[in-house]
Design a protein that fits this description.
The protein is mainly alpha-helical. The chain has 13 helices and no strands. The model has no long low-confidence stretch (mean pLDDT 84). The structure holds zinc ion (2 copies). One zinc ion (ZN) binds at residues 157, 226, 247, 251. Keywords: Lipid metabolism, Membrane, Oxidoreductase, Transmembrane, Transmembrane helix.
Length: 332
């Protein structure tokens, strides 16, 4: 029995380590190197050779060995193990795609089968998937900030006081579960709809739709958004795409920056919701929530949201109970 668990544990840890080599993972060495090159290019273009000094924090041992960074690593490994245990393997995306496929058929969408040229279908599929995926990430993130109970769990991500590419994994498992359901919902809806409307034409969806957009996003420096390197995209591009500097504003400790820049790739959702703030190469920010959770260890990060939730529930229950009679109260 113990042997089985040991094999499972070592296997999962090895898989976590292999993320550094896996091109489908954001922290793969390729994307870490490409982020560095994007920053090198833009800084040199803007500031000449002096611009390279701005990359200093990316290579600083003080940042990588900071207690906050060590907590990032701890949460990354432990969350992997927990989510691998909790999320049932049977709950696959394909099961949901099949269920939705038969649902769309039952309401007659199958009769609409459109015979559009395959390149158009693939292009339309990629665009629909990208827009729905990006908006659903934005909106889920918006909810994590606006719903007080959800914020309890999301504050774990904001408790990082220094940012490294591994801060992306600094989340509470409850948030991991919420984002898993989000991806399940968006992927299943788009894939099943396209399979019904365009039978036998979306078999390449994975290559063109998912991998294509994720690959470009990661290649263009997604890792810099969680780093101490402050890089904006310039006045024009900044209005359309979330730059590393914009996401760093999202992590700022300053009250003026609370609930700003929820987006992942496109900045248009934030502009529509009135939460957009452009980034600037020279912004000087402090990161964290400024609350006690910033100092918590890995286990503290896990327990603190649950403890706070239990305390709130207890207070709420007590406030609904009739007040106790004082001991010497006269009988009526
Ligand atoms: Zn947030
Ligand atoms: Zn973040």
């Amino acid at each position: 029995m113990l042997d089985t668990y040991w094999v499972w544990l070592t296997g999962e840890l090895a898989m976590a380590g292999s993320s550094l080599l896996d091109m489908q993972k954001r922290v793969s060495w390729l994307y870490l190197v490409s982020a560095l090159m994007v920053a090198c290019g833009l800084f040199t273009w803007r500031y000449g050779r002096n611009g390279l000094r701005r990359l200093g924090p990316l290579l600083s041992p003080r940042i990588w060995l900071h207690p906050s960074s060590r907590t990032d690593f701890g949460l990354w490994l432990i969350n992997r193990l927990v989510l691998a245990l909790v999320i049932p393997k049977a709950l696959t995306h394909m099961a949901w795609v099949s269920w939705l496929y038969f649902f769309w058929q039952s309401i007659g969408l199958g009769d609409l089968a459109l015979g559009w040229p395959t390149p158009v279908v693939i292009g339309l599929f990629s665009l629909s998937y990208f827009l729905l995926d990006d908006f659903s990430r934005f909106f889920t993130h918006w909810l994590l900030h606006k719903v007080p109970t959800l914020w309890l769990f999301h504050q774990v991500h904001h408790s990082a006081t220094v940012l490294t590419p591994f801060t992306v994994f600094r989340t509470h498992p409850v948030e991991g579960g919420i984002f898993f359901l989000r991806s399940l919902g968006t992927q299943s809806v788009v894939v099943s709809l396209f399979v019904v409307l365009f039978p036998n034409q979306v078999s390449l969806w994975q290559i063109f739709g998912v991998l294509g957009t994720t690959f470009i996003f990661n290649l263009l420096g997604a890792n810099l958004r969680h780093s101490q390197v402050v890089l904006s995209f310039g006045a024009v591009v900044e209005r359309w795409f979330i730059s590393p500097a914009q996401h760093q504003i999202h992590h700022s400790k300053a009250r003026i920056h609370y609930d700003r820049n929820f987006g992942v790739t496109l900045a248009i959702w934030d502009r529509l919701f009135g939460s957009w703030v452009p980034g600037d190469d020279d912004q000087a920010l402090q990161y964290g929530t400024g609350q006690i959770i910033d100092q918590k260890s890995v286990w503290g990060q896990w327990w603190y949201p649950i403890e706070t939730l239990l305390k709130r529930a207890r207070r709420s229950i007590l406030s609904h109970l009739p007040p106790r009679k004082p001991k010497n109260a006269p009988r009526i």
